[in-house]
């Protein structure tokens, strides 16, 4: 892991939610994960068996991880050992995302969202 000092004078974050991370400082591994099933209806009708992830294959399929087959060589020259930032303003960090000031060896995030909209029949809607 490349180690450089990060210096931030001021950070303003309005909202952090839905399996997200706001990290200050070094970390070895960050792995936020989120599964959301959202049903939006025009009428207040609920069924007892709704909201069960095990009935939805999209939440259990294995995600393909791309294999790197090329040889990659990197070289780094840090002219200054400090990354200096005056101010950072973030409106929101959401849905299995990361806002991180510092060094990280590995970040692996996953977000699976199924949003279902059920609308009432309307003769004017096409």
**Total strand count, please?**
8
Number of helices: 0
Q: Average the pLDDT over all residues and give the rounded result.
A: 86
- Spell out the helices and strands N to C: EEEEEEEE
Largest sheet: 2 strands, parallel
The end-to-end span amounts to: 55 Å
Order of strands in the sheet with most strands:
1-5
Protein name: Spore germination protein GerPE
Pfam families: GerPE (PF10970)
Organism: Metabacillus arenae
InterPro entries: Spore_germ_GerPE (IPR024496)
Describe the protein:
- Pfam families: GerPE (PF10970).
- The chain is mainly β and 126 residues long.
- The chain has strands spanning 5-13, 21-24, 27-30, 33-41, 82-90, 98-101, 104-107, 110-118.
- The protein has one domain (5-64, 82-118).
- It contains no helices and eight strands.
- The radius of gyration is 21 Å and the shape is elongated.
- It starts with a strand and ends in an 8-residue tail after the last strand.
- The mean pLDDT is 86.
Question: How are the elements arranged and paired?
Answer:
Blueprint: E1 5-13, E2 21-24, E3 27-30, E4 33-41, E5 82-90, E6 98-101, E7 104-107, E8 110-118
Write a brief structural summary.
This is Spore germination protein GerPE. With 126 residues, the chain is mainly beta.
Name some characteristics of this structure:
126 residues; mainly beta; two-stranded parallel ribbon; two-stranded parallel sheet; elongated; Spore_germ_GerPE; Spore germination protein GerPE
């Amino acid at each position: 892991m490349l180690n450089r000092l990060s210096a931030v004078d001021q950070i303003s974050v309005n909202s952090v939610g839905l399996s997200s991370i706001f990290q200050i400082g070094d970390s070895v591994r960050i792995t936020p994960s989120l599964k959301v099933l959202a049903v939006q209806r025009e009428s207040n009708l609920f069924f007892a068996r709704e909201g069960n992830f095990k009935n939805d294959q999209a939440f259990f399929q294995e995600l393909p991880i791309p294999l790197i087959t090329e040889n990659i060589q990197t070289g780094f020259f840090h002219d200054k050992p400090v990354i200096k930032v005056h101010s950072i303003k973030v409106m929101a960090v959401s849905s299995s995302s990361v806002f991180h000031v510092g060094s990280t060896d590995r970040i692996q995030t996953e977000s699976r969202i199924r949003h279902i909209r059920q609308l009432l029949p309307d003769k004017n809607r096409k």
